[in-house]
Design brief:
The complex is a heterodimer of chains A (432) and B (398). Chain A is α/β, with parallel strands linked by helices and 432 residues long. Chain A has a domain of 288 residues: Metal-dependent hydrolases (TIM Barrel, Alpha-Beta Barrel), CATH 3.20.20.140. Chain A has 12 helices and 18 strands. In chain A, helix 6 links the parallel strand 12 and strand 13. Chain A is globular and about 60 Å long. The relative contact order of chain A is 0.16. By secondary structure, chain B is an alpha/beta fold. Chain B folds into 2 domains: 110 residues, Urease, subunit C, domain 1 (Roll); 277 residues, Metal-dependent hydrolases (TIM Barrel, Alpha-Beta Barrel). Helix content of chain B is 29%, strand content 24%. In chain B, the strands form 3 sheets. A 7-stranded mixed β-sheet of chain B has the order 3-2-1-4-15-16-17, with no helix packed on it. Chain B has a 6-stranded mixed β-sheet with strand order 7-10-11-12-13-14. In chain B, helix 5 packs across helix 6. Chain B starts with a helix and ends with a strand. In chain B, 53% of the residues are buried. The chains are: A alpha/beta (432), B alpha/beta (398). The interface between A and B is large, with 39 and 43 residues.
Chain lengths: 432, 398
Amino acid sequence: MKRFIQLSILLLFCIPAIVLAQQTKVFTGGKIIPVSGEPIENGVMVIQDEKIIAIGAQGEVDIPTNAKKYDVSGKVIMPGLVDSHSHVGGGDGGDRSSALHPDTRILDSIDPRSDTFKKALAGGITTVNVMPGSGHLMSGQTVYLKLRKANRIEDMLFVDNPREEVAGGLKMANGTNPIGKGPFPGTRAKSASMVRELFIKAQNYKEKIEKADGDPDKMPTRDIGMEALVEVLNGERIVHNHTHRHDDILTAIRLAEEFDYRLVLHHVSEAWKVADEIAEADVPASIIVLDSPGGKMEAVDIKYKNGAVLEDAGVTVGYHTDASITDTRLFLRSGAFGVRAGMSREAALKALTIENAKMLDVQDRVGTLEKGKDADFIILSGNPLSVYTRVQQTWVEGKKRFDISNPEDRKYATGGYDVFERTTQNHNHGRN
Amino acid sequence: MKKRITLFLFALLLGVSMSSYSQIAVQADTIYTMEGNKIVNGIVLVQGDKIEAVGSASEIEIPSGYDTHKTSVVTPGLIDAHTVVGLAGIYNQDSDQDQLETSSAIQPHLRAYDAYNAREELVDFVLNKGVTTVHTGHGPGALASGQTMIVKTPYNTVEKGVLDSETTVAFTLGSTVGRYFDKPGTRAKGVAMLRQQFIKAQEYLEKQKSGEKPNKDLKMEALADVLNGDLTAMITAHRANDIMTALRLKEEFGFDMILDGAAEAYLVLDEIKEAGVPVFIHPTMTRTYGDAKNASFTTASKLAEAGISFAFQSGFESYVPKTRIILYEAAIAAAYGLDRETALHALTKQPAQLLGISDKVGSLAKGKDADLVLFDGDPLEYTTHIKSVIVDGKVVKK
């Protein structure tokens, strides 16, 4: 909100800018896949500033006379992709001093100029949940970002002020990645007990705050880790839990039920074994497509059919890149592989957009093309689930952020000499 | 070949029942034979473990009693030009990782044949993705990591599946070597160490030729085989300067060479072409870091434009995915400018030719091994399924 006020003040002093800022843009002639409803052949989408102001079939939508027109005949428009689990931006999380870092924010370590953002834009990604690694039981606070042009991380946040609003989730992990030598747990049971102990501490902290009832003398000493966990207990901060094996999946659900926090399961390699249990717990699953199983003990039973099985079971299912585990430039491919293994087309497209948005509590802003939502969209050369289709343009809040016809952008789609920085590989996946 | 004739005689003598002696007809909308143009509405007949006939449906009649399969598209069994399956296992634990020996940086005498686990789960996994033959062995990482081999994927022992027990010696140039070894510590030192060993091998050969019998040295035997042309040098090099170093070594020692990886090949296309060296191109989707930082989705298409022979490989992955799938890698290359039929060629006939096994596999023609992959659509499309895989006349996947 504050940013908006600043912008308005600025505009008052600068009349020509008002004309520019209120520029209305209309996209006609293409097929629009709004994801919120049936595809619209020969659709019309009108955007103003950063919002969609109208969308529908040709003839059903009023086109403002002063609108700048874009003919996208033969092309497909769909929502900007939402990646519910990514490691773009070169950030980090907790260090090796502890297995639990609820106090640590990845937003304090991200480089907004990282080329990984440009790579993601080339793949049509406009919203990301940037997570610290899985080598800890709690590696830190995640952050939900819009891939706006930015010099400061603040320019990319969904929220206006991260000190007053919850800017992301909390990354947790179970299974083998957080297991190691002290201070890390040595077993799965120890892992769960350490998490439970910390949440009991957070419950006590929360109780003290509630008892203080606004009296500053009675408030507990500020503890930023506890504050984040209280947000989790209050349902304001969602837990994003890395988990692979069927029993680890159920342990993640068990802990969420004990402490009544909101949970999203991540990776969920053996989801196909416990899909009904996941459905019964009403927990969403953010899954990954790996070309082959294995690479670690926990992932030997991963299946392409996870998406289809979860869809059939009625689970909210999304795909993620886990960048750079899978390539952000080819994020659409994950949905296509879901379809190959039996998922419906509709569910696959939702799994790349709105279902992921729900997992980040940003479904009112992004994930579908609807009147009033952010103008985050991509223009494709054709069927979103075909290998031959290319992302031609990526728009974030009414601004074009990627255009394949511009060589400076295109290079991020293909790679090549000196395109990527030397440090685009990887985050900590454990191995203590 | 000897093995097959014995097997055939054995079968005849025993009067093996029709069920184990294959008679299969595959009818398809499109057959990519890789021998000339694709056939529209064609038939492949399989008798025993060989292809009996290939042609259009108007020319070939399906004899009675043949097990008939109808499908959209048929290709030859796919050939992974360079992989580590069978050596680098699915679990990624010390006990199942045999793709790299780190006791010293030059060990060309190590044979993949002595390490290949035919029952490894990833071997079966790639078979289900249409890969019927693999050129597999030691991975990149050592200056000379060992001898690769060629094996068919459905068999339970290496002896049953092997097509060639020693095919290349795998070499690596570049910074990858430094990740696993203290010595060499630099690129230049690594090349010096390799040159010294090749010079020793030259002397070893000289002694043999002059009638002297040097003490048999397995390492020298392997390098002498490279110098003799009995084994090809497969050199993994990504950076343009490392590619040039590989070509310089080839020129100095006169060996047959395949360039492997070659992320920056697009910078030195003329040089590669002039040296007449074929390329096992890195997986299209390889991660852009380390020496392969400058990899591009368009390199395969640039090799094709330059007229350089190349084949697709799954390479080596230290984490996930534990193996790549060449069909998927070729698909991305096709999406980024490579002609689709050239992509299929680089999955079948081209690797067969480069590996010296094209008399048996890599294309569909009378007398060749009956290795086929049946698809329900464009083989390269994301949403297409593999319906069946046939190897040596047996349906191994349905």
